[in-house]
# Entry
Amino acid sequence: MVVPANRIPSTLILIRGVPGSGKSYLAMALEESFGKGHVLILDPDKVDLKSPEYLAFSDSLTKDGVELKFHPYRWSRAQAYDAIKANKIIIWNQAFTHLDGFNKTVINLQTYATDHGVHLPLLVVEVEIHEHIARQRVAEREQQGGHGVPSKAFARFINDYRSFSDEGFNTITVDGQAHVAKSVDRIKKALQTLWNQ
# Structure
């Protein structure tokens, strides 16, 4: 049975990959494919830290004793909670180099969904890319005014990043150098299978 476009179920898509792999580009292409009203894209590294809404949220966390470095993540998680209740597709775009943090994110969101009577299927999308291509993309992005990644931090990403495909999650791998439409098509086919299980 095919799920109609107007009945897209709430779903969590976690896009992983090193900086420069094309995660953000892929996330935006998926959002365009599903329609912006159906999708929430989250990236803790791109939170608007100066928005009044974020500042008020951050202030409340500070009063609760939460360290400042965790505020962008907590903000993204709160946005995800709202999206679960709104029956949206959540695209969480982050490298997730450490399995512990990855597991905590998945458990938090799926527990919240269960507590609110929502089934939240999960698809992990891992974007593969050659290291030199990723480095070149990051450098070009920085030259164009985008966010860069210091050399030492990039080296840590390369050193620490590994696939989580053997951890029991529904996982697919896409090529960060392939045409994005091809990757979107593969992801949508995997989602259709997931939704019909």
